[in-house]
Write a structure and sequence with these properties.
- By secondary structure, the protein is mostly helical.
- Helices cover about 75% and strands about 0% of the residues.
- The protein is globular, with a radius of gyration of 19 Å.
- The mean pLDDT is about 80.
């Protein structure tokens, strides 16, 4: 299936691939966005890198909504039963992974639907605890769009870097391989930067309150 997408990248396959990637079916976004961005920057391409990001984010939203509504409608017992079934295992799911996503959601609250999009092994599943918790749909969609959009921008930049810095790369397979090598580290790096900024503003606010109290 991966080979099909790499050989037939266009806006429709980007949309479909990201719907699959954002649902519970295991499919890496590195296979879609970086090669598509790389192609969009080619001299003979009819794609635009900005539209690649927009279409990929729309696909991620649709896939996330599938998980959200299934979890909301089916409930926790059926979700865990499926995760621990043979079909769930074929989708690389199990109860432990769903529980890990739920724990991440409980720990970080509604913002986890944003931060979770940057975390490997949580990215595809974070919509499930949001649905189980019956998170408000507009809030869920906003945070999901922001997180997925940021992640897709990162992946598109990787495709750009490969096009500019690695002229020897000639196939979408090679682009996907390079993107997969560095994407996880970049995701964690973004989380670290966001965390550092958040700590800075929290500390600054606390210092301001103490000065006002004096």
């Amino acid at each position: 299936m991966i080979e099909f997408f790499l050989d037939n990248l266009n806006y429709w396959t980007i949309l479909l691939g990201m719907i699959i990637e954002s649902s519970f079916i295991p499919f890496p976004s590195e296979v879609i966005v970086p090669p598509a961005a790389w192609l969009a920057l080619g001299p003979e391409s009819d794609m635009n890198i900005v539209l690649v990001v927009i279409v990929a984010t729309l696909g991620a939203d649709i896939g996330a909504l599938v998980n959200y509504f299934l979890a909301k409608w089916l409930g926790r017992p059926i979700v865990y039963k499926f995760a621990n079934s043979r079909w769930g295992h074929l989708c690389l799911l199990n109860g432990e992974k769903v529980e890990h996503a739920e724990e991440y959601f409980r720990k970080h609250g509604i913002a986890s639907t944003f931060f979770g999009r940057l975390v490997p092994a949580v990215r595809q599943l974070i919509s499930i605890p949001a649905g189980l918790a019956r998170m408000k749909l507009p809030t869920f969609l906003l945070y999901t769009t922001l997180g997925a959009g940021l992640w897709n921008i990162v992946l598109a930049v990787l495709g750009y870097v490969v096009r500019v810095s690695f002229p020897q790369v000639e196939t979408t397979e090679d682009v996907s391989r390079l993107a997969s090598t560095y994407s996880h580290e970049i995701g964690y790096g973004i989380l670290a930067i966001i965390g550092a900024v958040a700590v800075y503003f929290i500390v600054k606010r606390l210092v301001k309150k103490r000065k006002a109290a004096r």
